[in-house]
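Hi everyone,

Forwarding the result from last night's run.
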Amino acid sequence: MPSFSTLRIDADPLNPRVARLVLNRPEKLNAINEETPRELRAAVEWANAEASVHVIVVEGAGKGFCGGYDLSIFGGGEGDHPCQQERHPWDPLDDYAYMKRNTEDFMSLWRSPKPTIAKVHGAAVAGGSDIALCCDLLVMADDARIGYMPTRVWGCPTTAMWTFRLGAARAKQMMFTGDTIDGVTAKAWGLANDSVPVDQLETRTRQLADRISGVPRSHLAMHKMVVNQVQLTMGLEQTQNLATLFDGITRHNPEGLWFRRYAQTEGFKAAVAYRDSGQPIPEGDEAREKIRELESKRKPQS
């Protein structure tokens, strides 16, 4: 079996037609680091190369599915990362190339000829919701949460799956508010295929995976191709290109830089609490002034 640093994958011992892909950084709430997107794609490719595997279940170890990008890597500190360039003028194409690669890695779940099922407990938020929504099917615990809070400031979901999974009106509600919804609501809205009490989540997911696994691989691949083609015809790839470009802009415009400076000065927990509280986000000239104030606080005193 392949060996990875951020996840593991293996055939289910009770049903070798089911592969279990487990995001495995529980001490970090399975947050996405530099290796996660690449390893996710490699794991999907392994499952697709295994003739016995018919379906892939994606889940998270520990308390939740995935808490999004690891902000200690992508948001904190002073490093000049493609996602947060500050030591030289921002290069949108460097940013786009890096994030587009991550998007394509997550989309390996969507492109996989073998069906993929996201089994969500705890939280599937921010980048974690990208992973969940790239899967074909979504089974959630009733009390699990899914959403993309950084739409309030400092992010745009690069996979752009919300509209294709929810429809325009509810996708706009999620994007405009940055709210999360629980499994019960996700099922009622048609985002999740099912929502059950957390102690029944494994049983329900296994029932679905086992049912699918009895179908010939060729039939599954053809049915998936037909549905995916509808999304492609609706402009999925073009929408993702735009969303990935906009994601970089949200991190480098005055509002995005204000959020990063606030996080660097006050800590990410405080910044996230401000973002999610519903308080108005500083913008434009107000944001620029607050950036100057925060930068002056960060400068060492002589």
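The chain has 14 helices and nine strands.

Cheers,
N.
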